[in-house]
Amino acid sequence: MSATAKNLWGMLLGRLFVGTGMGIGPPVAALYVAEVSPAYVRGTYGSCSQLATCLGLMGALFIGFPAKQIEGWWRMCFWASVAPAALLTLFMEFSVESPHWLFKRGRGADAEAEFEKLLGGPYVKSAMAKLSKSQRGDEADTVKLSELFYGRHRKVVFMGSSLFALQQLSGINAVFYFSSTVFKSAGVPSESANICVGIANLLGSLFALVSMDKLGRKALLIASFSGMAVAMTIQATSASSLVSGSSVIYLSVEGMLLFVLTFAMGAGPVPGLLLSEMFPSRARAKAMSVCMAVHWVTSF
């Protein structure tokens, strides 16, 4: 729809549908990954979402390079985005359903069948036993929305919402947006600047991928936010009167790259995964939706 838009309203309508999909996709994807992944590799698989986002941003960057030189190339950018969406739709048809979701709806046999596809026959009984234990005590089929704000789940919802709010209020979107300006002042072309930021993001995502289950979620968050604080201190120092000359530019660039790197190490991938593990099964879906709503509001 955006690629074939003839006027502003057609473009806005297309972007509205894309935004709706973005609002639905991330929380469902995080929940799905958490429910189909074995506990010992859940952090690694959860980090793949951040890595995929990073690769997607870099792919969009390279596809968009000719837009300044070729008139109408922006339509090709939109057409290119059709491919991953279509592939995701196709491959999800062959993916397993969440055993947790099936079990909650009384379809135990189907849940066993899905566990067999995921883990193999020898591990089905132990997986079903853990699933049954995790569901024990969840008398109601689902939690009411009011319970998330006034019931026993309110503290966890507050923690999750605060984590997502801090993630966005850290200024990551502003850093991405103004990275070209900062690099341009250092004499680096905008295309090269975006590549540098993308590489920093990729390296941080790869670190999270290999260390999430080894170091733990809390350690990565502490290291990530600490590194981001150091990076912002470097940025603030470069903008103050304490530094002068060419060192101002280089400090600013270094601070920006360090910020992106440390964000991708923890603050980016951990919140979505951590929330899926914090909430009890009966409240998980709605609670994650509330936290993701906070995420998008603070991002806006």
From TrEMBL:
It is a multi-pass membrane protein. Residues 1-300 form the Major facilitator superfamily (MFS) profile domain. GO terms for molecular function: hexose transmembrane transporter activity. The keyword Isomerase does not apply. SUPFAM superfamilies: MFS general substrate transporter. The chain crosses the membrane at residues 12-33, 45-67, 156-180, 192-212, 219-236, 256-276. It is found in: Membrane. It comes from the Eukaryota. One of its GO terms (cellular component) is membrane. InterPro entries: GLUT, MFS_dom, MFS_sugar_transport-like, MFS_trans_sf, Sugar/inositol_transpt, Sugar_transporter_CS. Keywords: Membrane, Transmembrane, Transmembrane helix, Transport. This is Major facilitator superfamily (MFS) profile domain-containing protein. It comes from Gossypium mustelinum.
